[in-house]
Fold:
Amino acid sequence: MTRVLAFTETFIEILCCFLLCLMVVATAIGVFDRYWLHFGFGWPEEVSRYLFIWICLLGAVIGAKRNTHYVVDWFTITFCSRRGDEIFQICAYAIGVIIMGVITYKGAVLIKIVSGQISAGLQISMAFVYIVIPISSFLIGAFFVFNGMKLVKNIVKNTRKME
Structure:
């Protein structure tokens, strides 16, 4: 399981780097044609916007895998013991999994709604743009499950050591 998650993380990192390079090229084309050729194509701005959406949401997946999202832990630091903090973390992962499940479902519904819409500049289906929502939310939920299971495993391991 760990190898699959590591491969997924590496693949998403490489994909984000590739998408970022494409976004830089599209933006450079948009700047070149607007300021030096004095006319603007419609597609570079649209490509950059859609790639930015993909990069942000896939970057959130990497953040979930590495457990590097911001947390407000003032409450658990102030009022809870280490065990209480671990329980709060497990609850946060469980709530996160539920929320990501809802977003995955609603994202799939959104794909069905927008599949008939065509983008103005690129003339592609908007489903290609929005497909990243259910993909990223599913992967974030999967990483929340993995991180939560790892936390529970460490709690059980530490409890056995204390006995």
In short: Residues 97 and 141 are 5 Å apart (CA to CA). The chain has one domain: 2-162. Residues 2-162 form one domain. The chain has a mean pLDDT of 91.
